[in-house]
Amino acid sequence: MRVATYRTPAAEDDPDPGEVAVFYFGPTEGGTVDANVDRWFGQFDQADGRPTREVAERESTEIAGMSVTLVRAAGTYNAAAGPMAPRADLRPGYRLIGAIVEGPEGAVFFKFTGPEQTVADEEAHFLAMIESIDQP
């Protein structure tokens, strides 16, 4: 379930603002880290036809004793309204930075998408937010 949405201003000449969506499904829902990363990468198409997972970045770290998976991808974004929606809203030149924080009460998913320059301009702020996460 989406629990929050944040917008970042569009960079000069970018058509759209950035969006940070935060999801939490409870302690046992939401799928595995791998399934979510694969789904996020599957929302991007590459101009040369390669699977996004071949050109995307994925890293693991630990923050406040919690496992965190960080991913980055770019390409043409399928901004479908939902999982059953058709691939109708394709947005070239988009970028994703995602973080999956495996907390004691379940995973929290942070998905930052937007035009490439908009996301690049706000990347440090997004990562600082992720790095500030702490357990209660």
Beta-strand percentage range: 35-45%
Q: Which segments are poorly predicted (pLDDT under 50) over 5 or more consecutive residues? A: none
Structural classification: alpha+beta
Overall 3D form: globular
Report Rg: 15 Å
Q: pLDDT average, as an integer?
A: 94
Q: Report the sheet with the most strands, covering strand number, pairing sense and barrel closure.
A: 7 strands, antiparallel
Q: Give the termini separation.
A: 21 Å
**Counted beta strands:** 7
Order of helical and strand elements: EEHEEEEEH
Helical residues, percent: 10-25%
Please work out how many helical segments DSSP would assign: 2
Give the oligomer, counting copies of the same chain as homo and different chains as hetero.
Answer: single chain
Describe this structure in words.
The chain is of the alpha+beta class and 136 residues long. The protein has a domain at 32-92 and 125-136. It has helices at residues 33-42, 116-131; strands spanning 2-8, 18-24, 44-45, 57-63, 66-78, 90-103, 106-115. Strands 1, 2, 3, 4, 5, 6 and 7 form a seven-stranded antiparallel sheet that branches. The longest helix has 16 residues, at 116-131. The protein is globular and about 40 Å long. The two termini are 21 Å apart. The model has no long low-confidence stretch (mean pLDDT 94).
Please give a handful of descriptors for the protein shown:
seven-stranded antiparallel sheet, alpha+beta, 2 helices, globular
